[in-house]
Amino acid sequence: MTKGERDSLTRFVTRQAGHQLGFVRNLCNENSYTYNRKGTNRVAAMVLDPLGGLLSHHEEIRQTEVGDHHILRNRKDPEAVYLLGHMDTVFPPDHPFRRCRRAGRWLVGPGTGDMKGGIAVVVYALKALADIGWLERLNVTVMLSADEEIGAVTSAPFYRRERSRAAACLVAECGGSAGEIVVSRNGKAGARLECVGRDRHVGRGTSEKQSAVIEIAHKIIALEGLNDFLPGVSLNAGKVEGGLGPCTVAAHAECLLDIRWREEEHFNRLKRRINRILKVRAQAGCRCKMTILNHRPAMPLTEERKSMFRRLKLVGRTVGIDIAGEHRRGTSDANYFGAAGIPTLDGLGPVCEDDHTPKERILISSLAERTLLLAHFLARYAEP
């Protein structure tokens, strides 16, 4: 890329900064809670509008419970650079955190960082490359999913299908609070723990109960004891439900578990420990089972990824952005590509703080900075 082209790229991104900020606000003001299928599809339409003129091949993957997924390409050849983004957020339609507002240097709103701001970075980076005539030199594929926040239950098969066509993968989840780029991630599984006992009226006495609530309480305490039994391992018992009422011994109880690990080989060891815990009965007659609902493999820090990050860091310096790498305990759709050995970097979205909370916000100036960084890095893949 010549100096004139680099300058043109910078001018385009700077000139479009106001439009890009408005684009983020519009995306965030449209609720796209994962199970708000209509809202998520409206967000998709807003994103597809600018992308449709840039990437001519469009595959729509229809869904019934969540929004539809979309794959857009400018070529049908393999060895593409994949750009991943998700349109769903964690905030239900009736949540009080519904609208964007500007607060000084920050844009506060649902999904600003996770990850509608990142989608805007992808869209405007591609628009910038198209503006200087470089997009046609790239082989690029954009995947937009609608269920990342629940573990990519329906989109994961398409990531597995597509990663064999990928030369590299770049994901615009939010950057760290100091602009860090994600170079590795934990693995994660979502699971349901179910305990079955025997119901009866408490008026028959309290001895020799077979209460599913008591049984699951013992299991939760034991499972929580697995935290950090291996480096990076965490287990959290979240939502818990069970029983009919205070005067009935509970015949059924269940809870949702979040299980994370740093090394993929640790997952099988963790499952064996969990299974041993589930076999021990606190009350005769009760039984428990765990069902894995979703699974993302760990994304390790490889030598190839270190090299890729060094190249990104060099690109950052050419545009005046100094970046650091970080390991993130959270997971994203990047895990599916990174775990398969595809050169993958994440966290290319804007600087964000307090995502998944009513204080979620992005640093407005970082929108243009990350757009410029991504555009210049993509241009490296178009150079001979």
What's the SSE blueprint?
Layout (H helix, E strand, L loop, with lengths): L2 H13 L1 H13 L7 H16 L4 E5 L7 E5 L6 E7 L14 E3 L2 E3 L3 H20 L8 E6 L10 H7 L3 E6 L9 E5 L1 E10 L3 E2 L10 H13 L9 E9 L5 E2 L2 E10 L3 H15 L7 E10 L6 H16 L6 E4 L5 H5 L5 E2 L6 E2 L7 E3 H19 L2
Parallel strand pairs: 3-6, 3-7, 7-16, 8-15
Antiparallel strand pairs: 1-2, 2-6, 4-5, 5-18, 9-13, 9-14, 10-12, 11-13, 17-18
Helix pairs in contact: 1-4, 1-10, 2-4, 4-10
Task: Work out the oligomeric state of the chains in this entry.
Answer: single chain
Terminal CA distance reads 10 Å
Strand order of the largest sheet: 1-2-6-3-7-16
- Class of the largest domain, according to the CATH hierarchy? Alpha Beta
Secondary-structure element series = HHHEEEEEHEHEEEEHEEEHEHEHEEEH
Number of strands: 18
Treating each run of at least 4 consecutive H or I residues as one helix, how many helices? Answer: 10
Task: Return the CATH topology of the largest domain.
Answer: Aminopeptidase
Low-confidence stretches: none
Number of domains: 2
SSE-based structural type: alpha+beta
Percent in strands: 15-25%
Q: Calculate Rg over CA atoms.
A: 23 Å
